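Input record (one chain):
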Amino acid sequence: MDTRDRFRRSLNHRNTIRKREVPMRHKVIQKQPSSKMCLVCGLENRIGLKASFYELSNNELVAIFTPAEEHQSYPGLMHGGIASSILDETIGRVFIGRQEEAWAVTMELTVRYLRPVPLGQQLKVVGRIAEEDDRFFKGTGEIILPDGGIAVTGAGKYRKLSLDKIARDGVDFEALGWRVVTSTDDPEYIDLGE
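The corresponding structure, as predicted from the sequence alone:
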Protein backbone atom coordinates (compact mmCIF):
# COMPACT_ATOMS: atom_id res chain seq x y z
CA MET A 1 0.00 0.00 0.00
CA ASP A 2 1.54 3.30 -1.07
CA THR A 3 1.23 6.65 0.75
CA ARG A 4 -1.74 7.81 -1.34
CA ASP A 5 -3.69 4.62 -0.60
CA ARG A 6 -3.01 4.94 3.15
CA PHE A 7 -4.13 8.59 3.06
CA ARG A 8 -7.37 7.73 1.20
CA ARG A 9 -8.06 4.82 3.56
CA SER A 10 -7.56 7.03 6.64
CA LEU A 11 -9.93 9.62 5.18
CA ASN A 12 -12.57 6.97 4.48
CA HIS A 13 -12.27 5.59 8.02
CA ARG A 14 -12.71 9.02 9.62
CA ASN A 15 -15.47 9.92 7.17
CA THR A 16 -17.82 7.21 8.35
CA ILE A 17 -18.10 8.80 11.80
CA ARG A 18 -19.37 12.39 11.36
CA LYS A 19 -23.05 12.73 10.45
CA ARG A 20 -25.56 15.40 11.34
CA GLU A 21 -26.92 14.35 14.73
CA VAL A 22 -30.62 15.01 14.11
CA PRO A 23 -31.78 14.22 10.58
CA MET A 24 -34.97 16.18 10.01
CA ARG A 25 -37.22 17.63 7.36
CA HIS A 26 -37.85 21.37 7.61
CA LYS A 27 -40.33 23.60 5.80
CA VAL A 28 -38.88 26.36 3.63
CA ILE A 29 -40.26 29.71 4.82
CA GLN A 30 -38.79 31.76 1.99
CA LYS A 31 -35.98 31.99 -0.52
CA GLN A 32 -33.44 34.77 -0.05
CA PRO A 33 -32.36 37.17 -2.81
CA SER A 34 -29.34 36.60 -5.04
CA SER A 35 -27.22 39.12 -6.90
CA LYS A 36 -25.60 39.22 -10.33
CA MET A 37 -21.87 38.94 -9.58
CA CYS A 38 -21.33 37.69 -6.01
CA LEU A 39 -18.90 34.74 -5.99
CA VAL A 40 -21.31 32.71 -3.85
CA CYS A 41 -24.82 33.69 -5.00
CA GLY A 42 -24.19 35.61 -8.24
CA LEU A 43 -26.43 34.22 -10.96
CA GLU A 44 -24.41 35.90 -13.75
CA ASN A 45 -20.95 35.15 -12.32
CA ARG A 46 -19.46 32.75 -14.86
CA ILE A 47 -17.31 30.95 -12.26
CA GLY A 48 -19.52 31.55 -9.21
CA LEU A 49 -21.20 28.91 -7.06
CA LYS A 50 -24.72 30.18 -7.90
CA ALA A 51 -25.94 29.04 -4.48
CA SER A 52 -29.60 29.37 -3.54
CA PHE A 53 -30.45 30.28 0.07
CA TYR A 54 -33.57 29.14 1.93
CA GLU A 55 -34.84 30.22 5.35
CA LEU A 56 -36.23 27.26 7.28
CA SER A 57 -38.96 26.85 9.88
CA ASN A 58 -36.34 25.98 12.55
CA ASN A 59 -34.56 29.39 12.10
CA GLU A 60 -31.65 27.84 10.21
CA LEU A 61 -30.60 28.86 6.71
CA VAL A 62 -29.65 26.37 4.01
CA ALA A 63 -27.62 27.03 0.90
CA ILE A 64 -27.87 24.53 -1.94
CA PHE A 65 -25.25 24.42 -4.69
CA THR A 66 -23.22 22.08 -6.89
CA PRO A 67 -19.48 22.83 -7.08
CA ALA A 68 -17.99 22.62 -10.58
CA GLU A 69 -14.48 22.10 -11.99
CA GLU A 70 -13.74 25.81 -11.59
CA HIS A 71 -14.02 25.32 -7.81
CA GLN A 72 -11.48 22.53 -7.46
CA SER A 73 -8.19 22.21 -5.65
CA TYR A 74 -7.09 18.62 -6.15
CA PRO A 75 -8.76 16.89 -9.10
CA GLY A 76 -12.37 16.10 -8.26
CA LEU A 77 -12.32 17.94 -4.91
CA MET A 78 -13.58 21.39 -3.94
CA HIS A 79 -10.99 23.95 -2.83
CA GLY A 80 -10.89 24.63 0.92
CA GLY A 81 -11.13 28.38 0.35
CA ILE A 82 -14.39 27.86 -1.54
CA ALA A 83 -15.68 25.74 1.36
CA SER A 84 -14.78 28.56 3.74
CA SER A 85 -16.51 31.13 1.50
CA ILE A 86 -19.81 29.26 1.27
CA LEU A 87 -19.82 28.62 5.03
CA ASP A 88 -19.08 32.28 5.77
CA GLU A 89 -21.83 33.47 3.43
CA THR A 90 -24.39 31.01 4.80
CA ILE A 91 -23.73 31.80 8.46
CA GLY A 92 -23.68 35.55 7.78
CA ARG A 93 -26.90 35.42 5.76
CA VAL A 94 -28.86 33.90 8.65
CA PHE A 95 -29.09 37.45 9.96
CA ILE A 96 -30.59 38.93 6.75
CA GLY A 97 -34.19 39.88 7.37
CA ARG A 98 -34.00 39.58 11.15
CA GLN A 99 -33.36 43.27 11.72
CA GLU A 100 -34.40 46.05 9.35
CA GLU A 101 -31.51 47.61 7.40
CA ALA A 102 -28.81 45.58 9.20
CA TRP A 103 -26.38 43.16 7.56
CA ALA A 104 -23.54 41.02 8.85
CA VAL A 105 -19.81 41.61 8.39
CA THR A 106 -17.39 38.81 9.26
CA MET A 107 -15.09 39.56 12.20
CA GLU A 108 -13.55 36.08 12.52
CA LEU A 109 -14.15 32.61 11.08
CA THR A 110 -12.78 29.25 12.15
CA VAL A 111 -13.14 26.33 9.73
CA ARG A 112 -12.53 22.62 10.33
CA TYR A 113 -12.11 20.31 7.35
CA LEU A 114 -13.34 16.81 8.19
CA ARG A 115 -13.91 15.14 4.82
CA PRO A 116 -13.04 15.88 1.20
CA VAL A 117 -15.81 17.73 -0.66
CA PRO A 118 -16.52 16.28 -4.11
CA LEU A 119 -17.27 18.27 -7.23
CA GLY A 120 -20.38 17.73 -9.33
CA GLN A 121 -22.67 16.71 -6.47
CA GLN A 122 -25.40 18.84 -4.91
CA LEU A 123 -24.38 19.97 -1.43
CA LYS A 124 -26.23 21.62 1.44
CA VAL A 125 -24.71 24.20 3.75
CA VAL A 126 -26.51 24.93 7.01
CA GLY A 127 -26.05 28.07 9.09
CA ARG A 128 -27.52 29.22 12.39
CA ILE A 129 -27.09 31.91 15.04
CA ALA A 130 -25.64 30.53 18.28
CA GLU A 131 -25.69 33.72 20.37
CA GLU A 132 -26.47 37.36 19.77
CA ASP A 133 -26.42 40.83 21.32
CA ASP A 134 -27.18 44.31 19.96
CA ARG A 135 -23.96 44.67 17.93
CA PHE A 136 -22.64 41.15 17.24
CA PHE A 137 -23.69 37.57 16.74
CA LYS A 138 -21.89 34.25 16.71
CA GLY A 139 -22.94 31.60 14.26
CA THR A 140 -22.10 28.05 13.30
CA GLY A 141 -22.57 25.97 10.19
CA GLU A 142 -21.59 22.89 8.26
CA ILE A 143 -21.34 21.56 4.74
CA ILE A 144 -23.39 18.39 4.39
CA LEU A 145 -22.55 15.78 1.77
CA PRO A 146 -25.22 13.87 -0.20
CA ASP A 147 -24.85 10.88 2.17
CA GLY A 148 -25.60 13.09 5.20
CA GLY A 149 -21.97 13.22 6.32
CA ILE A 150 -20.54 16.48 7.59
CA ALA A 151 -17.56 17.53 5.49
CA VAL A 152 -16.67 20.96 6.87
CA THR A 153 -17.73 22.91 9.96
CA GLY A 154 -17.40 26.59 10.70
CA ALA A 155 -17.93 29.03 13.56
CA GLY A 156 -17.73 32.77 13.25
CA LYS A 157 -18.30 36.13 14.87
CA TYR A 158 -20.15 38.77 12.86
CA ARG A 159 -20.79 42.48 13.35
CA LYS A 160 -24.21 43.90 12.60
CA LEU A 161 -23.90 46.99 10.41
CA SER A 162 -26.20 49.08 8.28
CA LEU A 163 -25.53 49.02 4.54
CA ASP A 164 -24.53 52.69 4.51
CA LYS A 165 -21.63 51.83 6.85
CA ILE A 166 -20.59 48.82 4.77
CA ALA A 167 -20.86 50.43 1.32
CA ARG A 168 -19.91 54.05 1.81
CA ASP A 169 -21.05 55.04 -1.68
CA GLY A 170 -24.49 53.53 -1.15
CA VAL A 171 -26.03 50.41 -2.58
CA ASP A 172 -28.00 50.27 -5.79
CA PHE A 173 -29.93 47.01 -5.35
CA GLU A 174 -31.28 47.16 -8.88
CA ALA A 175 -27.78 47.45 -10.37
CA LEU A 176 -26.61 44.56 -8.16
CA GLY A 177 -29.48 42.43 -9.38
CA TRP A 178 -30.43 41.81 -5.74
CA ARG A 179 -33.71 39.95 -6.01
CA VAL A 180 -35.38 36.63 -5.38
CA VAL A 181 -35.26 34.47 -8.48
CA THR A 182 -37.70 31.60 -8.20
CA SER A 183 -37.17 28.26 -9.91
CA THR A 184 -39.18 25.10 -10.41
CA ASP A 185 -36.34 23.41 -8.47
CA ASP A 186 -37.00 25.48 -5.32
CA PRO A 187 -37.91 23.00 -2.56
CA GLU A 188 -40.93 23.22 -0.28
CA TYR A 189 -39.11 21.13 2.34
CA ILE A 190 -35.41 20.48 2.92
CA ASP A 191 -34.11 17.27 4.46
CA LEU A 192 -31.03 17.66 6.63
CA GLY A 193 -28.98 14.67 7.67
CA GLU A 194 -29.46 11.12 6.46
